[in-house]
Specification:
The structure is a homodimer. Chain A starts with 12 loop residues before the first helix and ends in a 14-residue tail after the last helix. In chain A, α4 runs antiparallel to α5, α5 packs antiparallel against α10 and α9 runs antiparallel to α10. The N terminus and C terminus of chain A are likely disordered. Chain A is 68% helix and 0% strand. Chain A folds into two domains: 49 residues, Arc Repressor Mutant, subunit A (Orthogonal Bundle); 147 residues, Tetracycline Repressor, domain 2 (Orthogonal Bundle). By secondary structure, chain A is mainly alpha-helical. The longest helix of chain A is centred in the middle third of the chain and has 25 residues. At the A-B interface, α9 and α10 of A face α9 and α10 of B. Chain B binds a DNA duplex through α1 and α3.
DNA sequence: GAATAAAAATGAACAATGTTCAAAATAAAG
DNA sequence: CTTTATTTTGAACATTGTTCATTTTTATTC
C-alpha cells in the first residue's frame, strides 16, 4: 500500500477555487434556466448568483454558450440516470420501450425549461458543439437499443442504432409538441396514454412480417 | 361645431405605402432568415434591405417578433400548399400519409432555415402567440386527418384530431432530429426510406386488432 | 394652388447585454 | 517578507432592439 504523491503544490488553492467557481456558475445558470428558460439567462445575473464579478465568468468559460453547454451536460446526465432506472423496473422489451418513453415525458414535464434548453440552445455560428458533448446525447439512445435488439433480432449494430434514433426522435417529437403550445395541444392527461399507445403500435409494426426492415446498407454512415 | 370627416381618400396613398413597406419588410426578413437563420436576423439589416429607416420598422410592426410571426405565417402557407398537392398525387390513405411525411421532409430539407424558424422562434415573455397564428399551424394537420379517418373509422372527430397531432409530432421529431446534428444523424439519404418505413409501421399498428385505440374520453379537451 | 393640419418616416439617442482589458488583489515562490 | 505570476475585478466597449423629437410627406381646406 503506497501513497502516490500527487502533491506538487501543497495547497493547490488556485485550481481548487477555479473548480468551485465553475460549479457555482453552472449551478447558478441551471437555476436561472429552470426558472426563466434559456431566454431569461443574463451573464450579469449568473455572476451575481455565483458570487463573482462579471468578468470572472469569462475566466472559466469562453462565453455563455459554453456555460450552457455544461448545464446541458448535467441535464443529460440526470436524464440518463432516470431513464436507466425506468428501464430496469420492467422486463419485456415492449414494456421497457413504453417505460422509457413515459419516463422521458415525465422528465420533460417536471423539468420543462432545463429539458427544453437541451434542444433550444443553438451554437452561434461556424463550429458546432464539441465532440464530447455531442457524444453525451447518446445516453438517450443507450436504453432504447437493448430492447430494440430483442424486438428486431435480424438487425446489425448500425441498423439498430438508426432505428433507435428514429424511435427516440418520434417520441421526442410527441413530447416536444405535446408540451409546447404551437398547436392546440393534446390534453396533458392524455399525453401519457397516447404515448404508450403510440409505442405499442410501433412495436406491432416492428413485428409485422409484411413490413420487415428494409435491407438497406447502413454500414458506411 | 364638429366636423365629421367624411373623407373618402381618393388615393389612399398612405395605407398603400404602408402595405408595400410591410411586404418589403417581411420579404427582407424572410431572405435573411433563409440565408442566416433566425439567429442572424438584425433589425438594421432588415430595414436596409427593405429600403427604409430603422425606425420605420416599428411603425409597421410592434417588434421584431411580430415581423418573424408574419414570416412564419408565409412559410406555413407555402408548406400547406405543397402538402396538399402531395396528398392529391396518390390515392390510398396509406400512400397519402407516406407522401405527406416525405413532402414534409423535403420541404424542411430544401428550406431548412425558414422551416426551422417555425419552431425555433420563441415569443419573449408573458402573452403567447396571437390566436390567428396558432390556428395557422392547423394546415399541418388538415392533410393528415382525412386519410387517418379512413384508417381509423371508429374514431370521432376529437379522437382523430388527437391522432393527427400525435402522428405529425412523431414525423416532425424524426425530420427535426434527422436534420439537426444533436446526434450522429441518420444519413440523409436514408432518412426518406426510414420515414416511409416508420409510417408504414404505424399504419400496421393502427390496423392491429390487438391494439385498438383506447376508448378514452377525449370529448372535453 | 397655397396654407394648414395630420400622419408617417427618419436616424440619433437610449437601454440592455455579451465581452474585453488595464488595474487591483491574491497566491506561489524565494 | 519580498518578489513574481496569476487571477479577479468592474469599468469601458460593441452590438443590437427600441424610442422619440424632428423632418418630410400626405391629406384637407379655402
Amino acid at each position: 500500500m503506497f501513497k502516490i504523491k500527487v502533491v506538487k503544490t501543497v495547497t493547490g488553492k488556485r485550481e481548487e477555487k477555479k473548480e468551485v467557481l465553475r460549479q457555482a456558475l453552472v449551478k447558478a445558470a441551471g437555476h436561472r434556466i429552470s426558472k426563466l428558460g434559456l431566454g431569461g439567462l443574463r451573464a450579469r445575473d449568473i455572476a451575481k448568483d455565483a458570487g463573482c464579478a462579471l468578468g470572472s465568468l469569462y475566466t472559466v468559460f469562453t462565453d455563455i454558450d459554453e456555460l450552457i453547454l455544461h448545464v446541458n451536460s448535467n441535464t443529460l446526465s440526470k436524464l440518463g440516470v432516470v431513464m436507466e432506472a425506468a428501464a430496469r423496473r420492467v422486463d419485456s422489451p415492449q414494456d421497457v420501450l413504453v417505460a422509457l418513453a413515459n419516463e422521458y415525458l415525465k422528465f420533460a414535464t417536471e423539468n420543462r425549461n432545463i429539458w427544453a434548453a437541451l434542444f433550444d440552445h443553438r451554437i452561434p455560428e461556424g463550429a458546432g458543439e464539441p465532440e464530447w458533448h455531442v457524444a453525451e446525447h447518446l445516453v438517450l439512445m443507450r436504453g432504447i437499443t437493448i430492447p430494440l435488439a430483442r424486438l428486431l433480432p435480424t438487425l446489425n449494430e448500425n441498423q439498430l442504432a438508426v432505428q433507435a434514433r428514429i424511435l427516440f426522435a418520434a417520441v421526442h417529437g410527441i413530447v416536444s409538441i405535446g408540451l409546447h403550445g404551437h398547436f392546440v395541444a393534446v390534453p396533458r392527461r392524455d399525453l401519457e396514454s397516447q404515448l404508450t399507445q403510440f409505442i405499442k403500435r410501433i412495436i406491432v409494426g416492428y413485428q409485422s412480417s409484411s413490413n420487415k426492415v428494409d435491407n438497406i446498407d447502413l454500414e458506411n454512415e
